[in-house]
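During the reporting period the student researcher (J.K.) took over the structure-prediction task from the postdoctoral fellow and processed the backlog of single-chain submissions. One of the processed entries is reproduced below for the supervisory committee.
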Amino acid sequence: MASEISDKTERKGLRRVVAASMAGTIVEWYEFFLYATAATLVFNKVFFPASGNDLDNIIKAFLTYAVGFIARPIGGIVFGHFGDKYGRKHLLQVAIILVGVTTFLMGCLPTYDMIGYAAPILLIVLRFLQGFAVGGEWGGAVLLVAEHAPNRERGFWASWPQAAVPIGNLLATIVLLVLSFTLSDEAFLAWGWRVGFWLSVVIVGVGYYIRTKVSDAPIFHEAKAEMEANAAAGYGVAEVFKRYPRGVFTAMGLRFAENILYYMVVTFSITYMSVQLQMQTSSILTLMLLAHVFHAIVVPLVGRFTDSLGRRPVYAAGAGLMIVWAVVAFPMFNTRNDAIILLAIVAGLAVHALMYAGQPAIMAEMFPTRMRYSGVSLGYQVTSIVAGSMAPIIATALLRATGSWVPVAGYIVFAALVTLVAVYFLRESKGVDLGDIDEQDRISSGLSTAAPDAESKLTR
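J.K. obtained the following structure tokens:
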């Protein structure tokens, strides 16, 4: 009876941690996706001078979008360093406030017609700060859950913060969809788009409050006490590269295809439908809304599969099916049939989920607690510079240069092959105890003389 009560209490506490992690992630990805959508539909028209080709200004807008990705690894390094030293919770509270303030200010920016090139410059500055905050958010959010989760269910519980990303995107899509339906195109471009950015203040307040109600996991407090007692127990980016270079580079390789696929599906597809297919904004946003609902539902389900089937086979399936999607998706788009286009988008997000859902557990299981925040942030965020940030730009440039989707599909196939190589070098870590990873780290670092146990649980 006592054990049942204890189990229920632990489950309740774990759900509270999941809610806190998701709350902030929803906020930050609401704002990140709001920017991505606005870059295609609004920013190319209000922050840059008129161009003879719509794709030219969209590429310029995507370059400002890419600035956020460049800032993300910097945020990951800084937040990871201090998060490993002081805790995940405190850094997450800083991240959510910073991203909320910068997003609100984006909604206040004057346009190109008002102040000329100072408008895109200010946009770039705010975008950099927003990306910096988001770069620190992900590692702390997923680790807050992963370090609290039971060993055999870590894939499932740690996938919930991942599900918060499509939920945040869903909220952004709903806001933009309502505005596009209720306002004329002229009113939407003049001021309506700003409302979505201003609404971030409300969501930030809710997310920040929820995050005050949780604490870091016991395993982090143990690692923190050890680092304070032993000066040789280092942390931060330099220590991660010194001790676990394989983990960092494997994480980067795993991230490559997943990150590119996501922004091809949720960002470039909007460009393709808007410019190439000349679809209405409201129709595009409706399709994206339905797709985000599906994505939010399927991510935790895939997370459960990684606990039962293993991390490697699920991830390999996602990278392999990405190749198939690249070949069939654009002919489906070109049918101009809403149902078939929706199927293409949903299929892309389903393939993405096969890689995305397991990432928190996989990356958490690559590094010991004393440097886990730095390790996962580095592996996750650095890749975004050459993957997600460049994907819409490269795809749009290929489309503009050739007028064909075939080179774009080739780019997607290349990304999938890179990640398949990384999966080959990935060690299967399903069910591993994070405490055992810490103990193995103590032994290999000369910080302990206890017998190793984790290595036997990490097999290819």
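The committee noted the following: DSSP finds 20 helices and no strands in the chain.
J.K. will present the remaining backlog at the next meeting.
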